[in-house]
Known about the structure:
Chain A has about 110 residues and is an all-beta fold. Chain A is about 0% helix and about 65% strand. In chain A, the strands form 2 sheets. In chain A, strands 2, 4, 5, 9, 10 and 11 form a 6-stranded mixed β-sheet that branches. A 5-stranded antiparallel β-sheet of chain A has the order 1-3-8-7-6, with no helix packed on it. Chain B has about 110 residues and is mainly beta. In chain B, strands 2, 4, 5, 6, 9, 10 and 11 form a 7-stranded mixed β-sheet that branches. The interface of A and B includes residues 45, 91 and 97 of A.
Amino acid sequence: GQSLEQPSEVTAVEGAIVQINCTYQTSGFYGLSWYQQHDGGAPTFLSYNALDGLEETGRFSSFLSRSDSYGYLLLQELQMKDSASYFCAVRDRWAGGFKTIFGAGTRLFVKA
Amino acid sequence: DSGVTQTPKHLITATGQRVTLRCSPRSGDLSVYWYQQSLDQGLQFLIHYYNGEERAKGNILERFSAQQFPDLHSELNLSSLELGDSALYFCASSVGRDFTNEQYFGPGTRLTVT
C-alpha cells in the first residue's frame, strides 16, 4: 500500500531552525513535494525533490533520500508567519499514470 | 493569489441534497485536480482532468462526479449528501497533462452538510 508519515505537530522558537520529517511507502515513487497551508487558507507549493540531496530555496530547504524512503523540510530563521501546517506529498506512479498522495500534515507552532 | 478561482466560498445544505462546486484554473493551465480536506485531515485526491478528459481517479465516491468544460473550467457535483461529506473542497491547476509536483490551489469551498 501507500503511506506517508510525518509528525502531527512541532513547536519551535522564533529565529530557530526546525526540521519536519517525512517517511513514505509507495509502489512507484517519483518525487517528494512539500506544501504549506495556513489556517483557513489554500496549500501553497514550497519545494520538490526527485533526486537524492538537498534543495535550497531561501530560508527553506528540502532533502530526499530515496534509499531510505525519507525526506525532510528544513526551515531556518523561523518567523511567526511560518506557523502553519506543512504537508509532504509523494508523486506516485500507478496504472493510470501518476497521482499525488498527501501526508496528514505537521502543524508548526512558532513561539516568540 | 494563485490565479485559481473557486465558487462558492461557503455552502450550507441538508443531507440528501445535491450541490455543484465550480473551479476556474489559472490562465494557460489545462489540468484541474479536485481534493477533499476534512477537519484536521490531509488532502485526499479525488479526480484529475486534462483538457476536458478524465486523467486519473482517486478516492472519489460514486455519489460524486466531475467534468471539465471546453473553456477549461471544472465542476464537482456532490449528490445524496451525507454529514460526512462536510469538508473543504479544493481545486488545483497545472499546465501539464500528468500530475506535476507543482500545483496551484484555489481558495477552496467549505461545504457544511446539516
